[in-house]
Amino acid sequence: MHKLTSPRTIEDILKRHGFKMSKKFGQNFLTDENIVLKIVNAAGVTEDDVVLEIGPGIGAMTAKLCERAKHVLAVEIDKMLIPILDETLAEYENCTVINEDILKLDINAEIIKHTEKKIKVVANLPYYITTPIIMGLLEKDIPIESITVMIQKEVAERIAATPGGKEYGALTVACGYYTKPQLSFIVPASVFIPKPKVDSAVIHMEVRDDRLMDKNDKDRFFAVVKAGFANRRKTLLNTLSNNLHYEKPDVKKALLQAGIEESRRAETLSFEDFKRIAEAFGKL
Ligand code: SAM
């Protein structure tokens, strides 16, 4: 079998199967073997791992994952790609292709068939639903050890941002609540067909074991983050009293208790700062 990243091979396979790439499903296939290897390496996949791949496309990365992992669950929404994957992955017995929408699939039910351990998620994500996929994986109770995904560079920079900059926002804090994000490397638009409009980046997120807060604190934490960034140019005192169900004196009291000046803005607060504010509201 020729390399599944070779533009010639991709063209040939697609032609033989009468397959047309779909914008609707965010289909941009990788044409650089080296990048595929770098993603698999960044994920640190070993022979004990069960890997969930979202959107295998024609299977270029799936094949590499099958060579490294114990088992690969590859979830592909486009039914037209299934006969192609049957062909390109025929030699791998440790691969299950599931023709489903990742946002609708009961992922836990699939994982349990293959392992009792935490899984690793590896993907070149469809860009039109990057955030719902990542947040969906984190919010549902899925046993995940790490998530290594290629996404738009701009979103990767937002996820890995530090307080104070313009990229720092609700998405940064939400991902930081569940994981320790690290931007692994940048990928130019030129290594995909078709070529997307923006550059990409690979982000590696180790999922935290220490889910710090109980359910009520967690809900409060996310409410504070949402309210804080609802008007990011306003002071915390104003944006929190406008967007939470608390009167101004109560917001003042909670901020004081958390040791946060009321004139600060959400974009300057660390994860720990948000946590202290949420806990202070809990004690009012
Ligand atoms: N992994 C391939 C590669 O790197 O060349 C393809 C990546 S392409 C950016 C995204 C893939 O996700 C496509 O194969 C697309 O059909 C699939 N996809 C899009 N939406 C999906 C969804 N909701 N659930 C599962 N797969 C989806």
TrEMBL record:
S-adenosyl-L-methionine binds at N28, L30, G55, E76, D101, N124. SMART domains: rADc. It catalyses: adenosine(1518)/adenosine(1519) in 16S rRNA + 4 S-adenosyl-L-methionine = N(6)-dimethyladenosine(1518)/N(6)-dimethyladenosine(1519) in 16S rRNA + 4 S-adenosyl-L-homocysteine + 4 H(+). NCBIfam families: ksgA. Residues 35-209 form the Ribosomal RNA adenine methylase transferase N-terminal domain. It is found in: Cytoplasm. GO terms for cellular component: cytosol. This is Ribosomal RNA small subunit methyltransferase A. PANTHER family: DIMETHYLADENOSINE TRANSFERASE, DIMETHYLADENOSINE TRANSFERASE-RELATED. Keywords: Cytoplasm, Methyltransferase, RNA-binding, rRNA processing, S-adenosyl-L-methionine, Transferase. It is an enzyme of class 2 (transferase). One of its GO terms (molecular function) is RNA binding. SUPFAM superfamilies: S-adenosyl-L-methionine-dependent methyltransferases. It comes from the Bacteria. The gene is rsmA. It comes from Alkalibacter saccharofermentans DSM 14828. Belongs to the class I-like SAM-binding methyltransferase superfamily. rRNA adenine N(6)-methyltransferase family. RsmA subfamily. Specifically dimethylates two adjacent adenosines (A1518 and A1519) in the loop of a conserved hairpin near the 3'-end of 16S rRNA in the 30S particle. May play a critical role in biogenesis of 30S subunits. Its EC number is 2.1.1.182.
